[in-house]
Amino acid sequence: MTKARELFELLAGAEELTVVCHNNPDPDCLASTLALGRIAAEAGIDERQILYGGSISHQQNRAFINLLDMELELFTPDSLGERDAGSLLAFVDHSLPGVNNELPEGTPVDIVIDHHSVDDVEGRFVDHREDIGATATILAEYVRELDVTVEETLATGLLFAIRRETLGFLRGATTAEYDAAGALHNHADRDLLRTLSTPSVSGATIDAISDSIDNRIVRGSVLLSHVGRTDERDALPQAADYLATLEGVETAVVFGIVEDAIELSARTTDSRIHIGNALKEAFDDVGSAGGHREMGGGEIPLGIFAGYRTDDERFVDIVENVVIDRLADSLKLSPSGD
C-alpha cells in the first residue's frame, strides 16, 4: 500500500482530526495543513481543527491565511481535550512533540508528515522525507494519487508553499518539487499567487532588516548579525534571505531577542556547510535548533543568561557575544575570518 493510501485508510476510520502546526507557522506548514484537511474531508471526517503556537506575524503568512480563508485557533493547555479512538492528532512540517510546538514532550501523535532533519520520529502514520524540498510537495503527491479535487485555493496554496520553501526552486528543490508544481500550475489562481508573493512590509520589519545590515560581522564568506530586540520575529528570515545575497557572502545567520527567547535564522549556499547541523551543534544543549543543509533556525530561552536582567543596557551585547562565539566555534571560524 502506498503512503497516500495508508494515510487515507487511517483517516477513513476516524471521526475527528486535529492538526497542530509548528510555532509561528509558515506557508509550507499552512498549505500542508490545508491539503491534509481536504484529504480528511474526502475520507469522511467532518470535525477538523487547526491549532498553532507562537504568533503569525510575517506579512506573507497573515496574507496566506486570510486569502485562503483558513481558520486557526491558538493552542492552549485545554485545546486537545479528551481524546478517544476516533480522534486523530497530526503534525505537518514538524515531527517531535515539545520541539517547536506547544504539545508536551512525549504526547502520542498519530500522523507525522515532514521533511526536516530530525531523529526518532514516531506515529501511527509517518512519512518523513529529508530529501524532499517541501512538506507541501508530499501533500501535493497525496492529493494527486487520491484524486482529491484540486480547486483553486488548494492548488494556489500548495504551489505558493513549494515556491516559497525552495526560494523559487533555487534552494533544496528536487524533481519532486517540479513535478508537483507542474501538476498544480493549471489549477492555481495566478492573481492570488502574485498577491501572496508581494505582501506589504511593515516599518518595524524594515527597521529590523536595517539593524541587521548595520550590525553585520563578516568572517570570510560567513556573515553573522543581529537585530537586537524586536517584536517582528519574522523579520529574521527576511533579513537572512537579504544578507545572504550580499557579494562574497555564502552563509548568513541573523538572530534577535524576541520576547523571552533568542530567535535565529540562517541561510547558506556553501556546499561545505550543513547549516541545520551547525546550528544544532551550536545550541542544542541550551535550546532548540536545526534545519536543512541550506536553511535553518533555532530558539534559545533567555534562561541561559541567568544573572542578567533583560532590561540591562549591556544585555544585547552579552547575547551578541555569546551567540557569535558559539556560531564561530560551530562554523569553525577564525577571528580574522581566514
**Number of helical regions:** 11
The largest sheet has its strands arranged as 3-2-1-4-5-6
The secondary structure category is: alpha/beta
Strand content: 15-25%
| Outline | globular
Annotate the secondary structure layout:
Layout: H1 3-12, E1 16-20, H2 27-42, E2 47-52, H3 59-67, E3 73-74, E4 87-92, E5 111-114, E6 125-128, H4 135-145, H5 152-165, H6 175-185, H7 190-197, H8 203-214, E7 217-219, E8 222-229, H9 235-243, E9 251-258, E10 261-268, H10 275-283, E11 288-291, E12 295-301, H11 315-331
Parallel strand pairs: 1-2, 1-4, 2-3, 4-5, 5-6, 8-9
Antiparallel strand pairs: 7-8, 9-10, 10-12, 11-12
Helix pairs in contact: 2-4, 2-5, 3-7, 4-5, 4-6, 5-6, 5-7, 8-9, 10-11
Domain DDH: 18-162
InterPro entries: DDH_dom (IPR001667), DHH_sf (IPR038763), DHHA1_dom (IPR003156), Oligoribo/pAp-PDE_c-di-AMP_PDE (IPR051319)
Domain DHHA1: 222-302
Q: How does this structure look, described?
A:
The protein is α/β, with parallel strands linked by helices and 338 residues long. The chain folds into 2 domains: 3-197, inorganic pyrophosphatase (n-terminal core), CATH 3.90.1640.10; 203-331, Diaminopimelate Epimerase, Chain A, domain 1, CATH 3.10.310.30. The chain is built from 11 helices and 12 strands. The strands form 2 sheets. It has a 6-stranded parallel beta sheet with strand order 3-2-1-4-5-6, with helices on one face. The protein has a 6-stranded mixed beta sheet with strand order 7-8-9-10-12-11, sandwiched between helices. Helix 2 (27-42) runs antiparallel to helix 5 and helix 4 crosses helix 6 (175-185). It is globular, with a radius of gyration of 20 Å. The termini are far apart.
